[in-house]
Structure formats: C-alpha cells, structure tokens
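Q:
My hope is that you can spare some time for a protein that puzzles me. I hope you can help me see how the letters and the tokens relate. Thank you; the sequence and its tokens follow:
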Amino acid sequence: MQRLTLSYLAGYLLVGGLGFLVAPDVALRLLLSNGAYGDIMPRVVGLFMLVLGGFILQFVRARDYRYYLYAVVARSFIVLVLTALYFQARDPLFLVLDAIVLIGLLPSIYVVVQSARANRPM
C-alpha cells in the first residue's frame, strides 16, 4: 500500500509539474483556476514539482519507505495551506489541488495508523 500511495504522489507531481512547466495556461484551466498567475510562476512551480516527483519515484523504485511518515505530515501541511489559500483567494484551483492531494493522503494516513497498531506492544 505504501508503494501505491507514493506512486500516486510521484504520478501527480510528475504529470502536474510537466503541465505547469510546458503549458501553464492549459494546466491552470484544467485545474479550474480563475486567478491570474502569469506565465513564469507556474513554470517555477512545475520545475519544483517535477524534481520532487523524481525524488519520490526513486524512493518507490528502491522500495525505501523510511520517509513515509514525513510524506504524510508534509502533505497534511500542504492541504492545510491550500485550504487557507482558497479562503484567501477564492480560486477553485486550491480546492482541486486539495482534492488531488487528499486522494493520496487519506489512504496514506490509514497505512500509518495500521502500521502503528501493528507495532504497538501488548
């Protein structure tokens, strides 16, 4: 299950990052954005998404899950910030991004909870 949830994370980072880098207007439109973000900043975001997606993909390939809990904590923080940004900007982009992150985060939280239960001393 860890492999699946991290593969999903790598997938949306790589696909989304490529979209933002190559065709930011199209990517923003597909994500229902109603804001004006210019041409450069979405490309910078795409650059970082591609690089992070590459790192996550390498963890998946190596079956290295040592940082799995951190990935859950980091994505929880991302959801919190995206939600706050939505309330500030009222741009549906942030809700769509929240949904994309939550689709992978919720099963990841389940994995962490189940792992903690399995390792609990009786």
About this structure: The radius of gyration is 16 Å. The chain has one domain: 2-118.
